[in-house]
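Let us practice reading a record.
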Amino acid sequence: MSISRARNRDAKLRENLMVLDRRINEQSMKVDTLIETVNRTIQSFKKQPPHHATNCNINVPAKIPLKYTVNKEIK
């Protein structure tokens, strides 16, 4: 009886791990999309002239590195 309980518990744990893995991948894709959107916005800011009302330049980074996401290869 204890062997069948252990097998059932093992199967449930595997199922839970698969669900968690799927959720991590979904969230990682959302983060990738957000980073790409931010990078496009940064590039559009860099192409615009300085704001005339404040008469100053806004320092923005070249882009956000993708090394922070699961789906991208760490460089």
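A brief commentary: The chain has one domain: 2-68.
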